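Supplementary Methods. Inverse-folding protocol.

Structures were first reduced to a discrete structure-token string of length 544. This string, shown here, constituted the complete conditioning input.
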């Protein structure tokens, strides 16, 4: 057996999705049942075994990446803890100046450990995820200059979720370094934190202090957690199976055959892809949080009704929240807090004021964040463009904020009135859809061509029944999508203005409660996009 075939064992398994029958009919019930029956002392080991078994099912022998990541950050944490302990002992009885000098020495030693952890994890990501992209572009440069040189384009097998658990592992090391958490000497607890099966494929990207202790404590499953977790899972299943998977055939056709589509079809494809991505990813997060809730583990929310955002900056505080928080805490803040950026900010404040002064350093940090964000999502120029597109939009928003406020005051416009807020939401949504067009396009050139056709060849003459049926969507499908999106929208409006819909339903009479949940189950069973005529669609964000 070759190394490639060994490492590929388990790839392509149906259980890459929480919504595969193998998962929610077999794996999840057995995991919950075993957890409930095993005595408290063994629950954590059952959960750890279930997590590693799940990851084996979705990645095969590529589980070695996860094991290596877990072992290395475990020992990096212990190493940091030892250095910190040595520092406390060595500086305990020194005077202020001597203590300061010695602390600086130990800080350098700790930074070296942190950089080693960062280089190791980011280096692995660069090799397996980006080396092919770099090699292809180097060859293009050589070809442009007619140089008789060619770099071999490497191909590596990449485990599902590596971008997620790598960031989670690095957050642990960085939190130990900053003293946010104490290094964990219990390898099993750290392993469960990194491998917990609901979150390892698509996140959310948790911090050690958020979930590690709760996972290891292993509370008994309670009726409330079981029912509420199942409700959240079911709502996510509706988003994924009824909407996201049903739209897939249309989205694939438009983005793969855009040359034969007019601008109106491309615009509709961009809109429906945005809907598909939101329903797929937020539906998966509903499943993750719901499963974790069954086990009594609160997970951080990853979506907060992003399409109610009034600016692009606000949108990205509501979409993939844990990724944005990771870049904010571990990249944006460290860059802006560096000595050079502090000096730049101090000097700029004096010259251009308190609003624009900090924007200089902030813009450098923002550029780093969005370049990293784009590359994190994928190794192609359209992902880099996607990052730079949002960098420019957020930067422009910061630059024009004072003039806009001045104009509003002069014109006596109330920015909190509903028409004004609605216009801001519509504008933000349009900008997001354009960004998602480039995000989904098969390369940057394809994205630019699609955008050009959308602007210059816009037409709705193609929209008829025959066209949608050719694209795999009949009027029946469109009606189902419309009704489901309306349900999700209504729930979102209630959450945005009133609070939890589950709490609202929970206060109703038992007959009303169970009627609603049984209706939702029936809705998913009848209208879910599965069975004959539908190809299973893996979670879209798992590929990142």
């Amino acid at each position: 057996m070759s190394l490639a075939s060994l490492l590929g064992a388990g790839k392509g398994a149906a259980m890459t999705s929480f919504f595969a029958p193998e998962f929610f009919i077999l794996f999840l019930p057995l995991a919950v049942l075993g957890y409930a029956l095993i005595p408290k002392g063994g629950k954590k080991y059952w959960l750890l075994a279930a997590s590693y078994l799940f990851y084996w099912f979705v990645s095969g022998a590529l589980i070695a990446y996860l094991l290596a990541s877990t072992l290395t950050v475990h020992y990096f944490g212990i190493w940091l803890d030892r250095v910190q302990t040595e520092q406390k002992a060595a500086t305990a009885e020194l005077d202020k100046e001597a203590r300061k000098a010695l602390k600086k020495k130990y800080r350098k030693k700790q930074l070296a450990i942190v950089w080693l952890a960062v280089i190791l994890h980011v280096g692995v990501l660069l090799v397996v995820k980006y080396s092919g992209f770099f090699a292809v572009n180097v060859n293009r440069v050589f070809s442009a200059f007619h140089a008789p040189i060619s770099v071999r384009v490497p191909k590596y097998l990449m485990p599902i979720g590596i971008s997620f658990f790598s960031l989670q592992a690095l957050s642990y090391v960085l939190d130990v370094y900053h003293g946010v958490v104490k290094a964990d000497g219990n390898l099993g607890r750290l392993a469960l934190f990194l491998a917990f099966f609901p979150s390892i494929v698509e996140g959310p990207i948790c911090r050690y202090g958020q979930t590690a202790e709760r996972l290891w404590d292993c509370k008994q499953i309670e009726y409330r957690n079981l029912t509420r977790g199942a409700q959240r899972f079911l709502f996510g299943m509706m988003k994924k199976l009824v909407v996201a998977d049903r739209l897939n055939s249309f989205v694939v056709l438009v983005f793969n055959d855009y040359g034969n589509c007019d601008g109106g079809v491309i615009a509709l494809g961009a809109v429906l892809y945005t809907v598909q991505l939101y329903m797929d990813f937020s539906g998966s997060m509903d499943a993750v949080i719901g499963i974790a809730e069954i086990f009594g583990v609160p997970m951080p929310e990853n979506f907060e009704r992003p399409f109610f955002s009034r600016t692009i900056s606000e949108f990205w505080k509501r979409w993939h929240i844990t990724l944005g928080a990771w870049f904010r805490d571990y990249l944006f803040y460290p860059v802006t807090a560096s000595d050079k950026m502090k000096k730049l900010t101090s000097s700029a404040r004096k010259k251009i004021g308190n609003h624009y002064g900090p924007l200089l350093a902030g813009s450098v940090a923002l550029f780093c964040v969005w370049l990293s964000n784009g590359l994190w999502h994928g190794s192609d120029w359209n992902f880099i463009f996607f990052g730079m597109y949002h960098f420019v939009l957020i930067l422009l928003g910061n630059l024009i904020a004072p003039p806009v406020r001045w104009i509003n005051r002069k014109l006596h416009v109330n920015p909190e009135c509903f028409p004004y807020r609605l216009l801001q939401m519509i504008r933000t949504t349009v900008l997001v859809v354009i960004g998602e067009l480039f995000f989904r396009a098969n390369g940057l050139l394809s994205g630019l061509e699609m955008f050009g056709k959308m602007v210059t060849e816009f037409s709705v003459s193609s929209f008829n029944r025959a066209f949608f049926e050719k694209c795999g969507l009949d009027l029946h499908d469109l009606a189902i999508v419309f009704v489901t999106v309306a349900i999700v929208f209504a729930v979102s409006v209630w959450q945005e203005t009133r609070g939890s819909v589950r709490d609202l339903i929970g206060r109703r009479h038992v007959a009303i409660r169970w009627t609603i949940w049984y209706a939702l189950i029936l809705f998913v069973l009848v209208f879910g996009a599965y069975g004959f005529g539908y190809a299973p669609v893996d979670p879209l964000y798992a590929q990142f």
